[in-house]
Design brief:
305 residues, alpha/beta, Quinone Oxidoreductase, Chain A, domain 1, Rossmann fold, seven-stranded mixed beta sheet, six-stranded parallel beta sheet
Length: 305
Amino acid sequence: MRRVRYTSVGGPLFLEEAPVPEPGPGELLVRCEAVGVTLPMVRKVAEAPEPVALGGEVAGEVVAAGEGVTRFRVGDRVTGLCFGHGYADFAVIHETMASPVPRDADAVTAIALVRSGLVALGALEAARLAPGESVLVTAAASGVGHLAVQLARTRGAGRVRGAVSGAEKADFVRSLGADDCVRYDDATWGEPVDCVLDAVGGELLTPAVAALAPHGRLVAYSSGGGTVRAYDLLVGAKSVIGFQMALIARGRPELYEQWRQELWRLFAEGALKPAVHGEFALEDAAAAHAAVTGRANLGKVVLRP
């Protein structure tokens, strides 16, 4: 089979031939039809001290199952997280990290909707959004952010604002249902909001906290790090909440499944429309990464083995 790999920090990415992996106990071997490109994985390639396996979100058909698998069988179509080599023709995922793809949905839709949607939905849950409250979403044109904008509407937000890196993304974010859109380098981010969902981190944490109204909540779910000054929280009785999807998937599988079903229901009803920025061949993985690092994407970036 083909897979994408790199041998030094920062790349370059290249295709190589490798044996088809075998699923171990509790694992599924999936023939990949679509693979999601995520900012955390792109950052690992650029920053991790040693090369890592290019894993992440995969969707496709189960072609083999390891010992003890009970939820899926050969021929099922699934999507889930691969912690090994996922940029490949075949990938191994554990059945606890997999979920079924409805018969009438394609693999690209599953990649654009499920994992990113789960993060967006989980961040909204962590924010304890009440009907009528206002929300600001950073990286609002990203794979997670563009779904968070739409989900905030379905959860009854009174006002939804997007924050993006460039003005060229504003029309896209408004088309998703946002009332307005600001740029990161704007002097202020508009009228204070009740909740900020932050997927960027780093230096943006300071203006994100400043954008909160008194008693506002910031949910941090980025891999970008950053520091928040305690005084900035104290003066407005504001709070910062960390959110990580993996903890939900491993520790609360029933909630993970409940959220997954909600996403597919909203998609079927037309209330949630995942956007795909582009579909790249495996040999074009470097271009897919460049679309993410360059903040060029409007929606999800997907590899198509």
